[in-house]
Amino acid sequence: MTVPFFTRPATVADIPALVSLINQAYRGTEAGWTSEGHLLDGPRTDAASLTELLRTGTILTLLHADELVGCVYVQPQGTRLYVGMLAVSPARQAQGLGRQLLGAANDFARQQGCQFLTMTVLEARPDLLAWYERHGFQRIGQPEPFPTDHNAGVPRQPLVLLRLEKPVTGAVEA
C-alpha cells in the first residue's frame, strides 16, 4: 500500500524541521535545482523568522508518512494570497511535490476568498521563473530591489525580484 502525501498547517513544534528543510532546499550543497547558494550567502531562514511567519500567515507543510518533504508560506492580503518560501527537500525534487504545494496554496486561497496568488522570484533564477510561468503565473509590475533588511541571506551580487501573479483556479467570481 502506497503512503499518500498530505498537507497541514505548521505548528511551532515543526519549526526545527522547517528550518532544516528550507535551508537545505535554498542553500544546501545537494544538487537540487532550487538552490540559491550561488546568489546568496548565509541561511535562508531561522527559527525566529519562521516563528514570526506563523504569527502573520500560515506555513503549509507537505508530509509523507511522518517525513516533512515540503512547505509553502501563504498570507492573505485582501483579494490576493501571497505565496512564498516554497521548498521541497532536495532528495524529493522532480516528483511533482512543488506542483502539489502550489495546489495546496491555491486551495487555501480559495478557502480564504482570495482571487489571485502572488509572489516574488529572483530575476537571476530564469529556470525557476519559467517553472512558475508554466504553472500559470505571469510577471506583473516593475522589478523590485532585493530587500536587505530581512533574514533571507546576503546577496553576492545585486539582485532584483520580479512579482508574479495568477488567478486562483476554481474561485468564485466576485
Automatic annotation (TrEMBL):
PROSITE patterns from the UniProt entry: GNAT
Pfam family, one: Acetyltransf_1
Keywords assigned: Acyltransferase, Transferase
Family annotation (InterPro entries): Acyl_CoA_acyltransferase (IPR016181), Bact_Acetyltransf (IPR050832), GNAT_dom (IPR000182)
Residues of the N-acetyltransferase domain: 5-160
GO molecular function, one term: acyltransferase activity, transferring groups other than amino-acyl groups
Gene3D superfamilies the record matches: 3.40.630.30
Record protein name field: GNAT family N-acetyltransferase
Originating organism: Hymenobacter jejuensis
